[in-house]
Every structure is written in structure tokens, then in C-alpha cells.
Amino acid sequence: MNAIEVKGLAKKFNGFAAVDGINFEIKEGEIFGLLGPNGAGKTTTISMLSTILKPTSGSATINGFNLATQQNDVRMSIGIVFQDPSLDDELTGRENLDFHGRLYGVSSKERKEKIKAVLELVELEEKADSQVKTYSGGMKRRLELARGLIHMPKILFLDEPTIGLDPQTRRKLWEYIKRINSEKGTTMILTTHYMEEADFLCNRIAIVDKGKIIASNTPEKLKQVLGGDVITLEASEPESLKKVVGKMAGINEVTIFGDKLNVTANNGSTVLPRIIKVAHDNGVSIRSATLKSPSLEDVFIHYTGRAIREEEADSKNAMRLRMRVGWR
Amino acid sequence: MIEFRVVYTMWLREMKRWWRSKPRMIGSLSMPILWLVVMGIGLGSSFSIPNAAFNYLVFVSPGIIGMSLLFTSIFSGVSVIWDRQFGFLKEILVSPVSRTSIVIGKMVGSSTVSLITGLVILFIVILLNGVSSLVLNPISLLQTVAFMSLISFSFVSVGLVIASKLTNMEGFQMIMSLLVMPTFFLSGAMFPIENAPQWMKAVAHIDPLMYGVDGMRSSLTGISQYPMMVDFTILVAFCVVMVALASHLFSRIE
Ligand SMILES: Nc1ncnc2c1ncn2[C@@H]1O[C@H](COP(=O)(O)OP(=O)(O)O)[C@@H](O)[C@H]1O
Ligand SMILES: [Mg+2]
User: Fold this and answer.
1) Residue B185 main-chain phi, psi, to 5 deg
2) Which residue owns the Cα nearest ligand 1 atom 26?
3) B58 close to B130: Cβ distance less than 8 angstroms
């Protein structure tokens, strides 16, 4: 059985299509990623699938329940870590978990056991009885992850679970997420704009941009689309360099983005010296050259002609977005 | 459909937050006490109500209890705006429980906080006035507590209605000066409405707190503008309407 099936799901805000007819299926036990820049429509998708927002059109089944008609069953089947903080700062960590357990009808005995187990999982036993306002950002995130597990949901929604966290804390969270998935078999749908995160955690990834899924597959298969290693060149005349490099043997594709040139080749390490020679012969100076195996970032560039990071740099916009979503 | 489990959960949270926030607790107690002492004793020593059988402190005491209930209740209801800003409301709204249970739970919790505060003020009122200047017996106390509960429930609901319409704290100052303060001043808490000009009397009669204060004055002093049953009936009607309105608006929040 599929844990989640989504058909033609769309959401319009005053005529603007934030999510524009997406389709996907997630198998039981899978970690499925929605990877895309800020404003791609990831949170809106999660909000619809978790019954917070009503879709403008389309349908979905979650754990076998119809999103439109079996809202309560859907809600019982899912746990969710929202993009924005959603804890009661005045309560302690344990009280936040207890509140959640009570709301979801977990019996008193089971609640105690579960709270103990999840606190152990995210290594928060020592902080459990302090008010949440004394927690660091990473601790709050871990507590939210733990909270989502109290009622033993079949499916866990993680909306940008490591946004704004330092690298070590991020690693830790990845570890917990992997462990939950492998030990409990929880199906997960995760959104992120960090390619490493999607690459490391997800069995399958859907790349989203402007409300649409532009590619969907396993990370390995997605990268194969690029046909090999990626050489990025900074040159004085990228246009003319593109022309000469395009004619060389052993080259799969040449694309320009900004003042840079992306060259894909099956065997990058032997192609790179040849490119430099050809450029020299044609009077084009190369300022820098990097060679790397393809990342999901390159996959995104391949499909959209833009980098995910460009949007990320626009932090003011991201901030505004976060505030708006938080205040809704 | 009301799930008792959910109501209890919401109530429990409200109690924990209240007990933990000592500044809020002290603040909500010290203002009415200040008013009682300054207005009741200070103003009362050089000012008396024409043709009244009792002194100003006795007159103003039910009014101050009403003020304490009004402020605590509205603030507590409006605090849902914070839950929304801090995202906690989402955690509640995404859970598999009925919205009505959530609203009722919030109301019961906030009203309990308001009522406890009111009871402390009542106790101080009795201390300041002395047992002999008030009507104090089990029945009058029960009646007083009934009016206090109705006032609390009604104005917590008013707060929730405001919160469901206001998405941030910006409009809050406006609500305070256009709604809360007039409700307090026109309730007859500080001066008898009977002696006020006609137009003010007219406005006062649409002030639900007036019936609450009048009801408590009736039970605590035996002297009031309207028979207790009239105050009671009007207040019950107002309370039912506000509870229904708050529940309705809340069930539609996205
Ligand atoms: N409540 C809303 N009203 C209007 N526009 C919205 C609302 N929520 C999101 N949007 C818009 O929809 C688009 C997708 O947003 P979102 O789903 O938050 O993207 P992501 O999570 O991928 O960063 C953005 O352009 C955003 O501005
Ligand atoms: Mg988002």
C-alpha cells in the first residue's frame, strides 16, 4: 500500500498558484523529500496534506484515508514538525509532550512510557523539566521531533526540520530521523532547501519549483540525468568558451549560468586539462575551474537554470515569509 | 461534540501557565487592590453617594471585583493571539479533536484563572469592609460566585472573539481604549448609573458588565438598581451568545 497518494493537488492564494497541480506517491517506510527553493510551495503542500489548509483542487489519500472526507483519521495518522516553532515556551519540555499525548488520547500509562522513550531518543532527558524558553534552537527542534512521535503516527511530516541550525545539530537531527525511520518504519515526507539534507536522508526526491514538480526520482537517478561529472569554469568570455568546448569529444553538455560555464563529462578529471588547453589556444582566459561529482544542486540548475542558493541568499524575503506563515 | 479529555487538557495548560507566571498573577491582583484602597478608602473619605445607606467603599467593592474579572478575562481570552504568533495554535488545531472542545477548554481554563483572581479580591473586599457592612451568608456568597463565573465566561469569550479577528497585537491598544475601558467605566462600578445623564444611562444599559456589577451589588449589599433575577437573566443570555459566537468563529480559523 502507498502511505501517501497525491493527485493534481493545487492551492491558489488570490489567483496566485502556490502549488500548481502536483502528483506523487510515497511507499510505506519511505523517506520522501520535497526539495526546492524558498517559495516553491513546499510548506503549502505540507499544510494541505496535514489538513491545515484546504486545497483549491486535487485530492490525496493519507494512510488510506481521504484527505477531504476523513480529516480526523488523517490527523490521527500523522505527526508533524512545522517549519516554524510551535512549542509552548512557558511549559517544560515534558509538559509539552504530555499535552500532546493527552490531546491525541494516549492513555496515562502509555504516555509516561512514550515520553520517556522519545526524550531518550532525542537526548533531552536532562532538560525535560526546564521551561522550553530556556532551550536552544536545536533543542527546541529535537523536542518538536520527539513530540511528533508521541502518538505513534504512521507518517511523519518534517517541514524544513533543520532550518537555521548549526552543522553539528543538523547532523544529530539527521541521525534521529534515520533512526526513527529504520527502527519504527515510519514513513516520512520531508521538505528542505538543503541539497545535502535531501541527498543524505531521502530514498526518493521530488524537485519542486514555482509550485510544480519538475523531476522526481532517487537521488542517484536524478544525478545520472546530468551524465557525469560537473566542471564549473569562470571565464572571460563564457559565450565563446561554450562554443569551442561544445565541439570537444567526451563532453555531454555545456550550459551557462551567470558568468559561469557548467560542463558535464563522464570523465571530468581527464577532460578538464583538455578544456584549459583548448581555451588557451582560442585566447579565452579561465579564471577558475572546479571539478566535482554531480550534486542535487546541479540537478536543480540543470532543470531551472538557477541555483537554489540564489533564493536562499534573499534572506529578507525568507524572513518575511516565515513571519507570515507563523502568524497565519 | 465536546470531549472532556480535551477540555481538561486545555484547562490544565491554562492553570500551569498561570501558576508559573508570578508577575502576571501579582499584576492582576495588585491593580484591583490599589483601586480598592485608593478609590474606596481615599476617595470615599471625602465623597459619599447622595441618599445612600452605605459608604463609598461598600458601593465600589462589587465594582472592583467586576473590574478585576473583566480585565483578567479579556486578557486571558485575547492571549490566544500569542499562541498564534508563537505557533502553538497550529499544534492544537492540527490535532484530531473537535474545535468546540478546544474552545470550551480554553474558556473553562481562562475563566478559572479569572475566578480565582476574583475570589482573592472578594476576600480582600471582606477584610477591608468588615464582615458587618456586607451581606454575608452562604446564599449571598453563592449568588456572588455565580455572577462572578458568568462575568468571567462572558468576557473570556469576548476576548476569544477579538482574538479570532485580530492576527497580531497591533489592534490591541485600540481594543483596550474603545472596548474594555468604556465597558468598565459605564458599568456603574465607580458611580451609580441612576444619577448619570440620560444619554450615559442609555449607553450603560447595553453594557453587559453593568448587570454583572448590579447583580453582585445586590447579593453583597442587598441594594441594587434591578432585581437580581433581571441581572441574572440578561447576563446568562449574553454569556450564551458570546460562547456560541466564540465557538463558531474558532471553528472557522485556518
Ligand atoms: N497564506 C498565504 N497567502 C498568500 N500567499 C501565500 C500564503 N502562504 C504562502 N504563500 C505564497 O505561496 C508561495 C509558496 O510558499 P511556501 O509554500 O511557503 O513555499 P516554501 O515552503 O517552498 O518556501 C510563496 O510565494 C508564498 O509567498
Ligand atoms: Mg516552507
Assistant:
1) -65, -30
2) A39
3) no
Q: Do A99 and B168 touch (CB under 8 A)?
A: no
Q: Do B96 and A104 touch (CB under 8 A)?
A: yes
> How confident is the model at residue B210, as a pLDDT?
97
Ligand 1 atom showing the smallest separation from residue A83 Cα = 21
Which of chain A's residues have a Cβ under 8 Å away from the Cβ of B92?
103
| pLDDT of res. A173 | 94
Q: Which residue of B has its CA nearest to A85?
A: B87
The ranges assigned to domains in chain B are: 2-251
Concatenated DSSP letters for A79-135? EEE-SS----TTSBHHHHHHHHHHHTT--HHHHHHHHHHHHHHTT-GGGTTSBGGGS
Q: Which of B14, B88, B102 is the best residue to mutate to test the A interface, defined by the most A CB atoms within 10 Å of its own CB?
A: B88
Q: How far apart are CA B46 and CA B44, in angstroms?
A: 6
- The domains of chain A, with CATH numbers, are 2-218 (3.40.50.300), 227-293 (3.30.70.100)
Report the complex ipTM: 0.91
pLDDT along chain A (328 residues), means of 10: 95 96 97 95 97 96 96 96 96 98 96 96 96 96 96 96 92 94 95 93 96 94 83 87 86 84 85 89 88 85 79 48 42
Question: Strand A212-217 relative to strand A65-66: parallel, antiparallel, unpaired?
Answer: unpaired
Q: Do A86 and B97 touch (CB under 8 A)?
A: no
Ligand number nearest to the C-alpha of A38: 1
A-chain CB neighbours of B84 within 8 Å are: 327-328
pLDDT for residue B172: 79
pTM, full prediction? 0.86
Residue keyed to cell 446568562: B236
CA of A39 to the centre of ligand 1 (A): 5
Q: How far apart are CA B131 and CA B243, in angstroms?
A: 35
pLDDT digit string, tens, across residues B81-108:
999 989 999 999 999 999 999 999 999 9
Q: Do residues A19 and A211 lie in contact, with contact meaning Cβ atoms separated by under 8 Å? A: yes
Best interface-test mutation with B: which of A43, A75, A80, A88 has the largest number of B CBs within 10 A?
A: A88
